[in-house]
Amino acid sequence: MFSSASQASVGRSLAGLETPCLVLETRRLARNVSRLKTHLEPFAVRFRPHLKTAKSAEVARVVTDELAAPLTVSTLREAEYFLEHGFSDLLYAIGIAPNKLEHVFDLRRRGAELSIVLDNIEMARLVAARCAERSDPLPVLIEIDTDDHRSGIKPRDPVLVEVGRALHEGGAVLGGVMTHAGSSYGLKGAAAFAERAEQERSGAIAAAEALRGAGLPCPEVSVGSTPTAHFARDLAGVTEVRAGVFMFFDLVMAGIGACSLDDIAISVLASVVGHQRDKGWILIDAGWMAMSRDRGTARLSVDQGYGIVCDLGCDPIPDLIVIDANQEHGIIAHRSGLGPLPNLPIGTMVRILPNHACATAAQHDRYHVTTDGSIVSAIWPRIYGW
Amino acid sequence: MFSSASQASVGRSLAGLETPCLVLETRRLARNVSRLKTHLEPFAVRFRPHLKTAKSAEVARVVTDELAAPLTVSTLREAEYFLEHGFSDLLYAIGIAPNKLEHVFDLRRRGAELSIVLDNIEMARLVAARCAERSDPLPVLIEIDTDDHRSGIKPRDPVLVEVGRALHEGGAVLGGVMTHAGSSYGLKGAAAFAERAEQERSGAIAAAEALRGAGLPCPEVSVGSTPTAHFARDLAGVTEVRAGVFMFFDLVMAGIGACSLDDIAISVLASVVGHQRDKGWILIDAGWMAMSRDRGTARLSVDQGYGIVCDLGCDPIPDLIVIDANQEHGIIAHRSGLGPLPNLPIGTMVRILPNHACATAAQHDRYHVTTDGSIVSAIWPRIYGW
């Protein structure tokens, strides 16, 4: 899959790599995983990590500690890939479209215990009918809207029971309810996350009770987002928790208080390729193609541009950020636009912490894995597309 | 490389595809290519199209009409890929970093007539020394800053001659000068583009004259950006023109008057997966992973959100845009946030015109090619990464 040059990078120091490239620090990854698992342990819930951020079987193995552990995925391509790598218990957590149903049934024929989600009566009827035609009782979770953020049915909307009944009385399996408090990304601090976690939990429970009150089954109550999963104080009635970006964390998560800068496990390695001294600019070879166009910190109290500039050891260089980006050029400057610049001669290598781990990792086809932060111990491929 | 399901999509109508996916209309592509070639023909300059947008050998063949035509590339991965597909005359147009030089020499040993660019004396000396060591007289273009936009040496900066001398008197070949008027993306209309094209031309010529006046060779004068290439009125003294995004065009180019909406050759096919009627939202399965995070129209007079929503025939639905996006969800709404919505039932398929073709195409691993706008005639792979 990779060129021989890439495979030859195993055993080299980061300073010996060709830039730009994506670096993954496994000590940070392992610590992030351990922290969330430790927090969730007392609640006796199933943990179903979301692999949309990592899109890598090797990362999935670190996160799960076991083969065949349950995973959440964001595309059927991910479902296919993780199935091929031994993970068969999969939740595809995006509302299903009619044109994906054949692919879903095909993956189930190939051994995937794949569940899907939906939030409307039209798809519920269509899915139930297709399940009956196929004689495949596909498990479906009904998506619940607990925070007005995006998709889902409100817990007390009468449509919820109608959807449940269409699934249960048709050919599908009513697997339960799921919700994602995506609005938690717009909050800040432990107290606010804990409150939103309780809103997520109580909304999902209310939906489950509405289904049960109508005589319908609701075995699963699945909740989760990185901020709510980490700060939930009560998960009574919840059967399953999902989270994804926590594996790597990023500047948005640090900016809202969900992690600290030294929890961020991925960075983009880049080289200084030019100076525009009259403007206070240092040019690097990591532009938006390497960082993504995500500007998630623009709406936070501290805007980190396209990322925080660190030295090769991943220590932030004070007040140095990537203030602008073209396709393959990044422009480094003092965050004030005017402050003093460190001496970074042509060829200096830096590491950039990303705004949004999901978006930045998606720009790369592999991780340059390092345990000690300086030597490449492995190359882990990642997938993309649909 | 692709699943059998994907190959089986050849011959299907767009309505039969799995979403999201990237659609390329070859009639629009061919018309865009023809328009620029016709404009450039009277000037008798070499055309070196930039393949950073397309990253596809099949697209390169449409654009060039001939094998072995000169190309511009933005990564050494592109250089490698196009070399393997018969294109050997390549300009890598990003200022070179020291850690890429071995890769450059390796590509040249493998048959690439590869040129590089740089804009500082440190790299000029290093490149000249490495060329001498390798006995490989690598052609180098000096990057010139003609518009204060990003990188390059000012035409009248004495460093220019110093850099030229270091290359020429060392082991490299001083190939000439190159510039890119990236600031043209911030202008609007033919007159402004023509003026910036003249500034680009005259700046590059001034730099060439400075080198020649110092007794140095400057055979090549390479200029270009999509807006300046299309509206240049004089290219006297210029030997080569580069442009990339014109192949596909996008909403940013339409917004500044460099093309019209029906020139845009790529779109993202998506499905309606939900409704939030109280909010005036229609949910689709194309989020920022399919569209990219590029919000290039946010700074223009008309903000197109994450893209303009079209029907299956690629006709825009009045005032309907993607107002927000999560990883795999797009939110469609009336551009006012309040206006009436068309009836788009669950499963309806739409096509989204992108803000920025380079960024959106980069999110996909293949083009679903259509000549007539409705039947898939081919699948063309595209590359990514470095």
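qc> The longest helix of chain A spans residues 190-213.
qc> done
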